[in-house]
Sequence to fold (768 residues):
Amino acid sequence: MDKSERYERGLAKLKEIYGEQAQTLVSALEDVTPDLSCYVVEFAFEDIHCRTGLNLKSREIATVSALTALGTAPSQLRAHIHAALNVGCTQEEVVEVILQMALYAGFPATINGMQAAKEVFTERKATK
Amino acid sequence: MDKSERYERGLAKLKEIYGEQAQTLVSALEDVTPDLSCYVVEFAFEDIHCRTGLNLKSREIATVSALTALGTAPSQLRAHIHAALNVGCTQEEVVEVILQMALYAGFPATINGMQAAKEVFTERKATK
Amino acid sequence: MDKSERYERGLAKLKEIYGEQAQTLVSALEDVTPDLSCYVVEFAFEDIHCRTGLNLKSREIATVSALTALGTAPSQLRAHIHAALNVGCTQEEVVEVILQMALYAGFPATINGMQAAKEVFTERKATK
Amino acid sequence: MDKSERYERGLAKLKEIYGEQAQTLVSALEDVTPDLSCYVVEFAFEDIHCRTGLNLKSREIATVSALTALGTAPSQLRAHIHAALNVGCTQEEVVEVILQMALYAGFPATINGMQAAKEVFTERKATK
Amino acid sequence: MDKSERYERGLAKLKEIYGEQAQTLVSALEDVTPDLSCYVVEFAFEDIHCRTGLNLKSREIATVSALTALGTAPSQLRAHIHAALNVGCTQEEVVEVILQMALYAGFPATINGMQAAKEVFTERKATK
Amino acid sequence: MDKSERYERGLAKLKEIYGEQAQTLVSALEDVTPDLSCYVVEFAFEDIHCRTGLNLKSREIATVSALTALGTAPSQLRAHIHAALNVGCTQEEVVEVILQMALYAGFPATINGMQAAKEVFTERKATK
Fold:
């Protein structure tokens, strides 16, 4: 597979996950550094997210829980809560994933994650 | 629900997840501090893990990913890789969850998580 | 002790620590997720903060230092600086706890903690 | 105050906290890098630990809680559990500080901290 | 070397690194806590940054990469991106250091670091 | 560039950095998971380390400082201290990079990093 093919497949996966938001996300990254945008599309969305062996819903559950636990990337957490809902998680499932992190990363991490979830839920309601 | 009921329900959930290992885990914690053991059974396994809204398999995916990303609790990561396999994850799914963390926590976190997974897989093969 | 008793005792402890701010804190959490609010009151403030063996002042010193060192929960750090002052810490003691974190978590963690402290001190002066 | 005076005062504080272990700790650091040993004595133990405004017991409570929450320095955590006991904390107080971190850094951090505490308690019993 | 000499040498190093911004940085810290400002000048900028054995450019590369990877101090990261550029790093080198952190701390850390870099680059362009 | 070309270029870069250790490192990763080994070679060593704009010595300074500050990957830290020395850092420069992290991540991170460095220095002396 040549490089442009990786990019195209990664972009298609990104669109499958983020729908109309995909282009905005890529443009935002390109605006920061074009090469970084390229690595995110090719490595994150083609190499990793196109792998079989774990469905997209489980991949987003893994990502939402990790970003909640780390607590250092609130903007990316919100993006992945959107992604989780886009690929089939219910709002209840997202809430449970974040709540479970109280056990493994403490209450402040969970409270901040819940506030991110609430913002995403409100935003999606407004744009419907 | 009174306190002893919470403990009994938590212990039952712990046994559902860990099978024969459950008693060893509780005894190890009790040996460190009895009260801590009690909170783990009641709060972690009754209050949180008995909740509906997210199945046990997804809960363990969330925990394995968070502990891989944090990288500070290798012993608990191994316990939760066992738990994930006990509640229905395939070895391939565990590997994919850990691999995905390369994107959100970097390669060292993923490499250390993979070594934990390999140890667990080897141990389970040996005890079969 | 039944569940509602745990809640009532936890809420009483929360009011002992936060005074008039207690209801605002609980309402803010309830607004995010009612269950999370419940766990914070019951597990954090009844199970843990009602324990004997460590006085409330030492508990808040422990929390302010940990949140300063972790650096991922600025809003909770400010709440616990309020709590520390409410249960008998002087402003000087809070400053010393945060300063000490330079040794264990580095200067950026301490500088950000000091700015949180300064905001809290200013806010309390204004509302007196 | 000239540099050697800072070193002497820092070393005296270190001995006040660690007793007979002080020389072992300094030698271990000197063995790694003499300059680092010097900064630890001068900056950590003279500049910071000789400050008034917070007693040594509270300083060690702050340090034990932060190192438990961070979870990245098990050897230093054990040293500071020794220090906490040396300057007047009871074993019960140390246990409570570590237990409280379950709320702010999660159960794995607390379980690992408790195991460190248990090792220190056993070691001190053996050497009495 | 007496204490005031350490302060003067630290301040001179700070001015060598930050130019006209140095006084603003010191004043901002003094405004928070005078003692903290003093330790930053004496310990961080005299004791450590005046050491030989590593040039200032490499020191700032080390700091920018660590703060990007930790992800908990965005304001200090921006200050050190300024510092890196002041002591001879090109914008391209700063971008490469931050990009490399994708490997060791994950994409969210790198994306947030890149946004910090972009803000600094824009600010410097505007003030030229 | 097709995929196998990326792999070959990545492997060549890995050999440039690690010399005879390169094959051992790749084999160790392949033993854990072949795909992970592949991503490390292609993404870490081709996509990122083959980039121009930052020399290898500065790349290793960035990595040693970040891994010291994070404190969660001691084995990878030792590998990158080897790498830093292989691409032209002196032992003194490595020591300075790790020492500097006391400012940004605290003394425990620096002490643990220094012990890793000492182990690497001893090992290299022994195998000469």
Summary: Chain B touches chain A at residues 43-44, 48, 51, 53-54, 58-59, 61-70, 76, 92-93, 95-97, 99-105 (CB under 8 Å).
